[in-house]
Amino acid sequence: MSGFAFQPRHALAHLRAADPALAEIIDAVGPFRMELKASRSLFGALAEAIVYQQLSNKAAATIYGRVEALYPRATDGFTPRHILKTADEALRGCGLSRAKVLAVQDLARKVAGGELPTLAEATTLADAELIERLVTVRGIGRWSAEMFLMFRLGRPDVLPLDDYSLRKAYAKAFRKRALPSPQALEKAGEKWRPYRTVASWYLWRTLEMAPVG
After folding, report:
1. I need a surface site. Which of 77, 168, 175, 191 has the fewest CB within 10 A?
2. Which of 19, 27, 88, 163 is catalytic?
3. What pTM was computed for the model?
4. Residues 6+ apart with CB under 8 A from 156
5. 127-143: pLDDT as tens digits
6. What is the rounded distance in angstroms from the CA atom of residue 212 to the CA atom of residue 182?
7. 163 catalytically annotated
8. Residue 45 in contact with residue 119, Cβ under 8 Å?
């Protein structure tokens, strides 16, 4: 699996040994098929993340396509300079909410001003430091930063505690009556270190499976 900052087979061996209950989930789900999303730049990845927030993939893709269409000569994708030269009305006309226009503009300013790392620099930063820098951008919270680390950079040990679907998956997989609090999920996930990303992926997959028995 290219692109990951770890060897999936080592992760699976560790998780199986560390948590027999999770091992059963791994067996039920099957091979590790998590896919990373290609990124041309940190700006491009985060701009896309902002556009996609709280929308269906179809609706978000339509809006993102309209933004891209504003810059027909930008064959490698629009840049911070493009955004900063575009009137608010033009961005709103693509379907972006006012909040998302402000967020994309803030992202563009911070990238153009060198306040954020490049994609290459991001790969060298520790998870906590990178998250701390990403959440300075308007509209990028901890969850969005964690998704960037997991699905763009392939980091091995991210456990998105505020992710509702992950808490729901944990409750389903481990037959809990109530959703775990973020604190309870963090405690439960200690045994999965340093491969909590892989554990999270397997838990998410359980939501797609029919109940057993």
Report:
1. 175
2. 163
3. 0.93
4. 4, 5, 6, 11, 194, 195, 196, 197, 198
5. 999 999 999 999 999 99
6. 26
7. yes
8. yes
